[in-house]
Amino acid sequence: MNMAFILSVKGSDVVSTQPHRTLAEAAALLASRGIGAVIVSGGDGEILGILSERDIVRAIGRDGAAALGEPVSRHMTARVVTARPESTVEQVMDQMTALRFRHMPVIDNGRLAGIVSIGDVVKWRVEDIETEHRAMREYIAHA
Predict the structure, then answer these.
(1) Would you say 3 and 108 are in contact if contact means Cβ atoms under 8 Å apart?
(2) pLDDT attached to residue 7
(3) How far is 111 from 126, CA to CA, in rounded Å?
(4) Residue 36 clears pLDDT 80, i.e. is over it
(5) Rounded Cα–Cα distance for residues 48 and 101 (Å)
(6) What is the CATH number of domain 3-141?
(7) Tens digit of each residue's pLDDT (9 = 90 or more) over 81-103
(8) For the purposes of burial, counting CB atoms within 10 Å of the CB of 114, is it exposed (0-12), middle (13-18) or buried (19 or more)?
(9) Which residues contact 102 (CB under 8 A, 6 or more apart)?
(10) Contact call for residues 52 and 102 (beta carbons, < 8 A)
(11) Which H or E element spans position 111?
């Protein structure tokens, strides 16, 4: 199972914001779309960073409510780890676990192809395991 397949099922819609927007605007965007992270991009579509709910909570915890008026660029993760369409579920899950983040953009030929969450990755990994388990039971039952 790879990221291209997951994106073909879940879709490739990616929500983004600009670096000058405030954390309050980004929080409202996350809430209205029911998502946990937003890509921060420049005018040319280049990925400048990623901002998650965790980033917002940490900013408020550190700076209080005043953080909500600060620009996204001040609190986003600028070093974005990405996957490729051919990256496997196991590879992406390992990276997300090791680096402790929950959202990963997928880049195809230098362009943003979509974004996957830890929920997406776990869902497909569990499905892989269940399929394998069923096949093993059928094999044993017919052996």
Answers:
(1) no
(2) 96
(3) 29
(4) yes
(5) 17
(6) 3.10.580.10
(7) 999 999 999 999 999 999 999 99
(8) buried
(9) 36, 37, 52, 54, 96, 117, 118, 119
(10) yes
(11) strand 111-117
Per-residue DSSP letter, 71: B
* Token digits of residue 35: 């998502």
What is the DSSP code (8-state) at residue 12?
-
- For residue 92, what are its two tokens? 């992406």
Tokens encoding 122: 């776990």
Q: Would you kindly state where each structural domain of the chain is located, as residue ranges?
A: 3-141
User: Which stretches within 11-117 are classed as H helix?
Assistant: 23-33, 53-63, 89-99
* Range 7-27 average pLDDT: 96
Length of the chain: 143
Structure tokens given for 99: 């680096």
- According to DSSP, the residues that pair with 108 across neighbouring strands are 111
